[in-house]
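hey so u asked for the seq, here:
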Amino acid sequence: MVYTLICHLYTLPDAASIAKVKSKLIEAARIYRKDKETVGWAVMQDVHDPRKFSIVERFAQESSQQYHLSNPYWKTFDPYVVPLLVRPIEVLRHEELVGEEEEEEEEEEEKEEEGKEQ
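ran it, structure tokens below
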């Protein structure tokens, strides 16, 4: 089951803060996408309010966050971004829903792939 974090950020109203957060998010995505057991790491900006940003972090499982949190870049992110925000980052934690049949099919496909690799 994929473990997903959805983070919402809302910047200060000045153009410089918006630009700095946008740039830092793009940089973070390039780095975090390479972390072990990271399925995806996407950043988005609201189409109507340029101060609103979202991050969707997808991990193979909840424990996969350890690789993300141990990445040295993580220690630089909050100290840079938080002062540019109106309020704390909202973090929502989810497990993606997969039906039993789909999960069984995925397991079978994984076994087939493993068999092909050997």
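The mean pLDDT is 91. The radius of gyration is 17 Å.
lmk if thats what u needed
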